[in-house]
Amino acid sequence: MSNIYSSGDIYVQPTGFGAWIRSPGVRETIESVLIAVLLALLFRFFEAEAYVIPTGSMAPDLQGRHIDVVCNECGYNILAGASKEQGRQVNRVVCPICQHPQTLRPGDRDNRPFSGDRILVSKFAYDFDAPDRWDVIVFKYPNNGKQNFIKRLIGLPDEGVLIEKGDIYAFDQPTQTFQDREICRKPPQKQKAMLQIVDDTDHIAKALLQAGWPSRWQQWNGQATDSDWKISEDLNRFSLNNPTDKTRWLRYRHLRPQKADWQSALGLNPPELPKRMQGEVPAGQLITDYYAYNDTPVNEAGDFSSYVGLHWVGDLAVEADVEVKSESGDLALELVEGGIKYRCTIDVSNGTTTFSWKNPFDEDSVVLQGTTSFQSPIKRPGKYDILFANTDNKLTLWVNNRFVGDCEYRRTGDVVPRWSKQDAGDAEPVGIGGRAIHLEVSRLQVMRDIYYTSKNLTRQTAIGEDNPSFEYDGFDGRNPRVISAIKRLFQQPWEWSGAAAERLFTSRNRDESFVFPLAENQYLPMGDNSPQSNDARTWDGARYIDGSYLLGEALFIYWPHAKTKPLPFWPNFERMKFIQ
User: 128 with 177, same domain?
Assistant: First the structure.
């Protein structure tokens, strides 16, 4: 008999609310809800907890409060910092690809600031295991225990940590000296996630294209033959049918549009190519640690922030969507740093892949360490997404978003940009080539590594007799003469071997006085957005966190800001991801 409950030897038939609450279906539902609530509480307090990122110190991969709009010239998705803590009322944004300044429309739903990413943090990640370098950690701010910070873990206990030329070096203080320091290399998954966009051929500005702006990718100074690279009219497709035994190279020049270029392209009908681009195409300028996230005009007059990227970044990566159309031949990718050409060559007949290097300037030497030849999945005709990177003195290859192989190297001598009339060197720092092969490329992207700066420096360096001195890392961005001088130097390759350039580039060398010393249970956290991160480099007092301040490891972006299209509050699924 259903709904009958035993009470001693007497059977009682419950009625009313008692009958309803004791119904098996209702009871099971209530028990399920209570268990779910209990599990949620246990998950929150004992396993993971949700946090909201308020600022852009980890941008662009982790986003705080920001503006998110599409460039109306090239279609690239622009991210611009709008943190309340920085008092940023953003009225205009700048595209990181085409440099087009775009005025925002007040009150427009698509132009309003979005809140920061919501993330899950594993609260017990470090209870049974020590943190690893490059983990993204959440911790209590040492100067305010009520405030939580999120940064990347850079320095470990008992280490001496050095920031030099944008990279991280460390040595074990109990057993080693400053001379024993080694560069800290990122594991492949971290390395890939931390790359910053520089150029993307899927995003070509319409007005610049109509004005005749040249492709940044060309076979520069090459003799036109039937076996050369062919470039589509919209500058985003490239094809090569080269039956010869000589490699044909398509190389990248960093032709960054300037404010005057946009005035010529948009201020005239039809658009007109600016004078500096008419005739011979200018030599490529250096790629810098420019962050479009930070470079935001903050008033109607269009005044830009002072940060324009004044540090040369030689750690680069290239990604290409390649369709191999022949059964054999060589596909090659090349990255240049300090005149050294680091090359990845793939024999498409069998997938054999080789890392090598060449120095046309005969000054510095490189020693490759480890495996320089391995097998890749690029075999015969097919479509492949290929990513080749040179960061932290390590060459790495991914194919179809899968890690394939890497090779570390050591380099001697000062790493400074090189150029000559015979070889463009760092003025053409990225290349893709083919020998005895037929292939098509539908997309080319150039990326750079994070460039860390030392804001604790006091050293001053002059770049010219008629220019004031400046602090190279953490420079005085308020001095327009200094900024102009550095930008001019970066745009003139023939000056890179001069005395002013030598003083500028070698000023990044560091001695023992710049080391961050860490003791037992002390950690050094820093933000990925190095120019605008309040982290251990600049804190008042101790420039580290004690292990007891660790709250956990950032795991997953479970709710980035929602989209406004195709419907309001549309989930932003593509940004829901594990945090690297």
Answer: yes
